[in-house]
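Notes to self, FAD-dependent oxidoreductase domain-containing protein 2:
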Amino acid sequence: LGLAMYASGLCAVSGAAFLYHDYCVIGAGPAGLQAAYFLQRAGRDYIVFERSHAPGSFFALYPRHRKLISINKQYTGKSNSEFNLRHDWNSLLSHDRRLLFRRYSRDFFPNADTMVRYLEDFASLLKLRVQYNTAIIHVTLEKNEQAWNGHYFLLTDQDRKNYKCSSLLVAAGTWVPNVVNFPGSEYVEGYETVSINPEDFTGQTVLILGRGNSAFETAENILGVTNFIHMVSRSRVRLSWATHYVGDLRAINNGLLDTYQLKSLDGLLEGDLEDLAIVKDKKGKLHITLRFYLENRNISAGIDSITLPQDELDNFATRAPYDRVIRCLGWKFDFSIYNRSLRMMPGKGNIKKYPQIKPSYESRGTRGLFVLGTASHSVDFRKSAGGFIHGFRYTTRAVHRLLENRHHGVPWPSTVYPITQLTNSIIKRVNEASGLYQMFSVLADIILLRENATAFEYLEEYPVGVLAELEMQTGRKARNGLFVIIMEYGRNFSGADKDVFYYNRAVGEAQHAWQSNFLHPVIYYYKHLPTEREMRLRPPDWPLPRPNAIHHIVEDFLTDWTAPNAHILPLRRFLENCLGTDLRNFFAESCFLFAFTHQKLPPSCQQGYVRMQGLLGSQELRQHAVQAGLLQDYTHTDLSGDRPPDSHHGSQEHLMRDHGIPLRPLQHLVNAKDE
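result:
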């Protein structure tokens, strides 16, 4: 039987043997290991291929100056582990509390070597099935109607060993350096190879091509030893505190902005790099000119025969020669290993460095091929955190849940609650959930209402881009309407040209919550599941189509949405208006009154008092309610007139109190404790 099972995993195609796995994962970086963790916990057949001898090989080299810009906040004042992940941008998700990154480093911005060690431990302690020193050099398709997706994925490594899988998860990241070719670009040094020893730049004049964190990181390293540094890029600098995008320039690297604006020789310039040209003189100095000056001229003939911009414009900005030119233009996805049959095409415009994928992270060209991690950032590029560990650890989990439903019939995890818990459930999630917080505008909690709104089903962190496909992707039904809970910034608050520190920038009153600027919860209500067409025609910059009703929970300076009047009460009233019901919680004596005076009891009475559950009117509760102004004080009221305390009526009263039956006249009973 063992031999038969082994033989069944080996398939012969064109004379080559293929080792079969249900899932193949390319890359053992953070996203690949995260995917492996979920596959292993689910008991799936998988293998991870890593070209290096250890996981996280990207971090073994980058960032070159070894300081990560992902925060590692040790203290938050809270012990809630889910909340603390909001401020831990390095840990992967697992059940093992030993694998929290704060146990590996106490630095707010950790060293990249610590990340390498952390990923090694994550793979080894969890016993993930990673095959090291295996570089996949070719991927193609084999059509087969019996396969999960109508085809198998065939992979070949550097040793010509072959593998076959039903589903392919690409987590190889973006690691191919972006290179701009122009006349003289051979004189340019790359970020991936340039010296990181500041002494090598002493007394030199340096030009840096690029304007991202790698460019400013390089400038920060040599700022104190150079004559001056110029930085050229086609776009203006984008500060992360203005755009609210963590991939833009972070404060830890922006020293050059100070020296530029405070007149200390360094400077920033804007221009299209493809229009540049570099000419080297006899002394080894590098001169910047423009491509059109070199037309019909031989660059090797020497600088004396070439017209430079300063020959016509004597105050040309880059007229001073440079000792070194460094390219810091980031990275792009490696498309070279994928056969044309997979139709792995680059995106368009500013996302051309990423493969084209759907909001479900599945390739637009090939069913069953999912892109994870940094390479999946086209879904939320310059919007959310999907290109970084603290974002894609949640999108990877979402992809796993989609696959579990599609291939194994395991519906998206959900919890069913009575409708009386609706307000509490939302408040709990918006105050704790890390996935909603990090992947704002991309992942959302979905509340599916049951018939007659007596109960609801809660689904966590579903990709809103495929909301129209919710029933197919999750195995859950949305027949009676739904709420979508998502986190958003204000519509006009983020941008490279925005002043985010202007006076009165925050909203504090609930009636103005829709004008909130900082990250805050937004609840969308739909009577019916939105269609594909409605998703396509949604307003610009809206994550979702126009709902039947929408509610903003007002922004909070502490990101603590638990204030009874500012946060909870407006939310509860919004939910009640959508459902046409009363979501307050009542004491038993109020439910008793409603039973005599109303045709329909509030849900808390139906699900509590009628079933002999809920809060009984004990002496302590009554006293508390009186002190809170919720009940009138009848302590000194003689309900029995002049009867002696040991009368028959007194015995009845004692008996009725023992059974929790309220004694006051109906007209004196008050409505409720409004929680």
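- The chain is about 25% helix and 20% strand.
- The chain has three domains: 19-175+332-402, 185-329, 414-579.
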